[in-house]
Amino acid sequence: MTEPASPPQRKIIHIDMDAFFASVEQRDDPALRGLPVAVGGSRERGVVAAASYEARKFGVHSAMPSVTARRKCPDLVFVKPRFEVYKAVSLQIRAIFALHTPVIEPLSLDEAYLDVTENLQAIASATEIAERIRADIRAVTGLTASAGVSYNKFLAKLASDHRKPDGLFVITPRMGPGFVEELPVGRFHGVGPATTTKMQALGIHTGLDLRAQPLAFLQQHFGKAGPYYYWIARGIDERPVRANRERKSVGAENTFAADLNSLAAAREALQPIIDKVWRHCETAGISGRSVTLKVKYADFSQVTRSRTGGAPVASRAELAEISDALLVPVFPVPRGIRLLGVTLSALGDGTTAVEPQLRLAV
Q1: Is residue 111 among the annotated active site residues?
Q2: Which of 105, 111, 282, 355 is catalytic?
């Protein structure tokens, strides 16, 4: 009896545009080239949506308050976002991807996974495909992209970060486990700042430290994420590249150091949460019709309030207005508020496609 053939080794590419929004602005306005540029609002409550590499040298990065960015880089040039332009360029890039594979999982306007195990041009080398894609992106858009090539999504993402900007790096099956063990856990995709701090408190600082932990230990301390951490520490990630994955919602929440008891304090605390939700909507080129407010009290009981409109929320101001309308009836509160969250759902991009799910935490 003949043994069934084992499936082919997967070939995954992760493409990440370099400082995408800022690079588009520098491309379209030659006067900005070579300058530290931040895309976003320069007002007091503004937030940096993207920073050029010249700005990053000063420590400016996305999601940073504009006042902090200006303090770090006094010569920072702020440019108002042009999301329609970014979406148009993103469609050009997606068209290049589609020449090679239909199995494309977009993460945002400037980032995607591609499964090229079986590809449309029958190119045996995933590295060659990645080089062609990078060259085509440069020729068509005038922009640079970094690429990571590996046998799973986790390692492909790590690889694309390894030689940014304008780089390509390959992690082979033989390299995978060793590459992971040397990395700080904070570099792992899916391990955010809070989890990094928790891991370090447990004595887990590198991939090698993580690999030394039993599965039961990781499940005890990290719940459902435990098995994911257990396997990625070994260079194993079986998640498929999911083409046209439907995004159901985008949300942000914050747990406060001190409980909130007044409406004024809750309104103030809600603003950065709304900022983060709306920034991700703009970045991904999406909007939604349903707004949900989550309120968790000091005793861990919680309530949610929702409102669904006939049309997508059109602006950050409208999202803030609806969120406030949901917040006001919660007061007076029976006990202090320890957490607030806002979620936007019933999502779409205003045309036809729906963007993929993105995890978001304040």
Answers
A1: yes
A2: 111
